[in-house]
């Protein structure tokens, strides 16, 4: 009997703990642009900056990414101008990834079914969304896709009784949300598949200061690997510059963090490994162990 009880307890201990996930460092994401490429609501006095469809898509995407708990969303004024610059302009953004989106299709229709004793009115909205995910460090598009979403509502009247199908402003939200839902999971997977990367900011009197802090999930006692960047070469077939794998030079252990915002957060570390060139810190980066 004791042996049976022991085996039962051992089996319970061995069961996986569902609902618990390994802690991961948050990625910094900037939504660089969400444009309305359709002709919907574009009249004589159309204001691109205050386009309601564009703002709806931007807000919905931001909410979905924030709800995942895996990202720090950054607001960037003038981001389009930075993107238009050279590769160095991309580095100024301060994000790991940049999302560029557009509404490629938007349509609304109303259909009615009139009968002797009743009538039904159905409103339908269809929205098409295109997304591109850009890696800020390289400027390369690592994910691109598009999806469509639908939403509809109906109202029926019988002998003059029943609901009336007035203009339903929520349908556009629902259609855009349905389209984005199909893309958000892929965005999350693409961002999280790539190892988190941070940077060495300063070496001062034995103190090693790195980018990132508490809001990204960096805690005291956490260790990282310090790499020296590999050589950058140009692929003759595509003309794209490719950074070769870096060389491990040592390890950093976090002792404390400080900063008021995700952009200003830094962490102090101790270091063990090959001496670091203090005049050449841009050629180093850190990654999770």
Description:
The chain is an alpha+beta fold and 289 residues long. It folds into 2 domains: 25-193, Rossmann fold, CATH 3.40.50; 197-288, Beta Barrel (Thrombin, subunit H). The chain contains 5 helices and 15 strands. The strands form 3 sheets. It has a 7-stranded antiparallel β-sheet with strand order 7-15-10-13-14-9-8, with no helix packed on it. A hairpin with a 3-residue loop joins strand 3 and strand 4 (118-135). Helix 2 (52-67) packs across helix 5 (170-193). It is elongated. The protein starts with a helix and ends with a strand. The relative contact order is 0.13. Residues 1-21 and 85-90 have low confidence and may be disordered.
Shape: elongated
Oligomeric category: single chain
How would you write the strand order of the largest sheet?
Answer: 7-15-10-13-14-9-8
Number of strands: 15
> What is the percent of helical residues?
10-25%
- What is the terminal-to-terminal distance? 45 Å
- CATH class annotation of the largest domain: Alpha Beta
Question: What count of structural domains?
Answer: 2
The main pleated sheet reads as:
7 strands, antiparallel
CATH architecture of the largest domain: 3-Layer(aba) Sandwich
Average pLDDT, rounded to a whole number, is: 79
Specify the number of helices. Answer: 5
Sequence stretches where pLDDT stays below 50 over 5 or more residues:
1-21, 85-90
Radius of gyration: 26 Å
- Label the structural class: alpha+beta
CATH homologous superfamily designation of the largest domain: ABC-type transport auxiliary lipoprotein component
Give helix and strand order, one letter per element, not per position: HEHEHHEEEEHEEEEEEEEE
At CATH level 3, the topology of the largest domain is Rossmann fold
Proportion of beta-strand residues: 35-45%
